[in-house]
Sequence to fold (201 residues):
Amino acid sequence: MKSLYQRAGLALLCSAILAGCGGGGGSMALSGTISGLGKPDLVLVNTKNGETLAIASGQASFVFTKLVAPDEEFDVQVKTQPTGAKCDPVGTTTKGKASVYTVYSLQFTCQTNPYTLGGTVTGLDTKGLVLTNGSDTVSILPPATPGAAVSFTFPTMVADGSPYGVTILTQPKDTTKVCTLSNAVGNMPAGNYNGISVTCQ
Fold:
């Protein structure tokens, strides 16, 4: 009789623990990993039971609170993309039927949105001007029409929010003019930026 009471008490304790963890008759927690998340506001949703989960910037793993039962269907998707980035499921890891082989291996990968970085050069009349942003360089030719402004864009795009610092690698050749920069240092906005100014005089 004592053993029966103990078993009944243990069953009640287990039920209480499961309920506290999100319960619902399940026994497994949907969980997984996220790579490359450097932006806030990501929200995941299990479309099969409606549970949503907010993910913080830099977070590398997640666990849903509502437990799922063996063979219960799940389908975890991105409900809200992070600000300035895009996240996607990896293969078919985020949907299926719950088992010990599926519920703990959900995977998402994220990429911060990239944008073009560039600007305008005025007063350039000879070749040789080269600008650099880190290891990325761009050579700028003089305009076909003397005195006209020249637009430029670095070949490598820059991620939203990432720092940039443009410098002059080489000055134009065969001229007494010296080129100077303005608006050359900052953080990439959420869109293409063409505000770097180069003045040669």
Summary: The chain has one helix and 18 strands.
